Amino acid sequence: MLFRKSTMREIYEEERIAAIKRHIEGEKSVEIYSSLGKSKPWFMKWWKRYRTGNDEWYKDLPKRPRTIRKKIDERIETAVVAIRKSLIDGTEDSTRYSFVGSESIKFRMEELGYIPQDIPSQSTIKRIIKRNKLRVNTKERYKRVKSKGRYTLLKLEFIDEMHQIDFVGPRHIKGFGAINSIHLKDVVGRQVAGNQYIEKSMDNAMKFLLDYWKCHPIPRYLQVDNGMSFAGDYKHPRSFSRFVRLCLYIGIEIVFIAPAKPWMNGTIEEFNKGFDRLFWKQETFTDLEDIRVKSKIFYARQNKFNERKLQETDLKSIGPKRILRPDLEIDVNNIPLVAGKIHCIRMVDGKGNVSIFNERFHVGGEYIGEYCWATIDTKKELLVIAYNDENMVVHELNRLDYGIKETVHDRSELFASSLFCVGR
Asked: Are residues 281 and 232 part of one domain?
């Protein structure tokens, strides 16, 4: 067998030498490789090798890798495996509610006092996980549509530029009953917040946000789904919900994602999955107060993890920073409509229309199945519908009067004193 392999190698080498010799003597390359039953890439490979001037250009290169990877220290590999298992189990106080990926393992090793030289790279940690059969199920992937990557006109780059908010539940505590969680996450800054309530209601959503905004910066945009807790019941066209009014009153542009498209709220949806996997399924609860106390620990640990992930970035916060006055009281049942913008992401239906708060507006049959961005400007009483094409160029598809049957107040005239304790 060894003799056979040696003979074949010599035949291949002689074939290469003869082909290059024919070309040097003036024969066309296409005639050479065609006569030998070879391809053009085959000929060019050996012609380039010949031109290097190497005396052994016609020989195959060694099959073994040119660089030998440094063997992972057995002690370090054992530590990575142990940390991975402890993060998956989540039974220790220090690892409860933690993520389990390679980045989390690196952070955990830092917390345990390993020196930087002993902490493997994330790619090495992933190989250790795979080798030791410690992989978990892969993430779900949403079905792609043509304009999925072009559904929004916003290009977010600042901390607190956009927050996403969502209700999760109901979930049931044995012996107590149903509870619902409301979650908020900063799309760029990754900080999270949340609380639990008996009901999914607009009152609870507004109370949560007002409490949050008295301690944390107010975003420019707040993105939500089309649930009744945010959008209202749509019974009366162009009659805005108390939630929408509150956002406009405080100076926030609200963004409604397309109905039944949770992937558009991907930041908060991904956090909701982590809440379910790392918190809800890992703990037992007795009542509403019990889960509220424990969830605060969970949110704090997620924020610590996310803060460490951003340590080496140069992200900046959106300015000016605005936080509600601690003593501010707002009658959420009597909020005037003020000037501002409401954005809706909508898919064009089979008739070339988009539905916005139970009203249909025509954009054209050529956009059927695509996503459009509709903006209601309450000050100008105007509806503008735009589309982001394949080249990421925004086109205005329609501009319509959007009459509102109530007074729209100018915010600068409405507020004699500031709502905010930081900036305006």
From this structure: yes
DSSP β-ladder status, 221-224 and 162-173:
parallel
β-sheet bridge partners, residue 401: 382
- Are both 189 and 258 inside the same structural domain? yes
Number of independent structural domains in the chain: 3
Which residues, listed in sequence order, are joined to residue 359 by a DSSP beta bridge? 356
Q: Dihedral sign, CA of 57, 60, 62, 64?
A: positive
Tokens of 248: 């406009």
Q: Is residue 232 part of a domain?
A: yes
Return all residues near 274 (Cβ < 8 A) that are at least 6 apart: 99, 302
Q: Are residues 237 and 370 in the same domain?
A: yes
Range of the structural domain that residue 88 is part of: 74-131
Residues 319 and 353 in one domain: yes
3-class SS at 322? Answer: coil
Predicted model pTM: 0.69
Residues 351-369 pLDDT 10s: 999 999 989 999 998 999 8
Cβ burial, residue 92 (10 Å; 0-12/13-18/19+): exposed
Cα separation, 112 vs 152, in Å, equals: 42
Structure letter (DSSP) for residue 158: S
pLDDT level of residue 98 (50, 70, 90 thresholds): low
Indicate whether 403 belongs to any domain: yes
Q: 346 and 370: one domain?
A: yes
109-123, 151-165, 243-257, 296-310, range with the lowest pLDDT: 109-123
- Say yes or no: 118 and 257 in one domain: no
Residue 389 covered by a domain:
yes
Cβ–Cβ < 8 Å for 223, 257: yes
287-293 contacts at long range (C-beta below 8 A, 24 or more positions apart): 287/173, 287/176, 288/173, 288/176, 288/179, 288/196, 288/197, 288/198, 291/173, 291/179, 291/196, 292/195, 292/196
Domain boundary among the residues 98, 131, 164 is at 131
Lowest-confidence pick of 82-96, 221-235, 264-278, 355-369: 82-96
Residues 275 and 126 in one domain: no
Cα(136)–Cα(102) distance, integer angstroms: 12
pLDDT for residue 309 is more than 60: yes
Same domain, 308 and 391: yes
Q: How many residues does the chain have?
A: 424
Q: In this structure, which amino acid lies at residue 191?
A: Q
CB atoms inside a 10 Å sphere around CB 138: 6
The answer to whether position 155 is within a domain reads yes
Distance in angstroms (rounded) separating the CA atoms of residues 291 and 298: 10
Q: What is the DSSP string of 212-224?
A: HHTTSPPPSEEEE
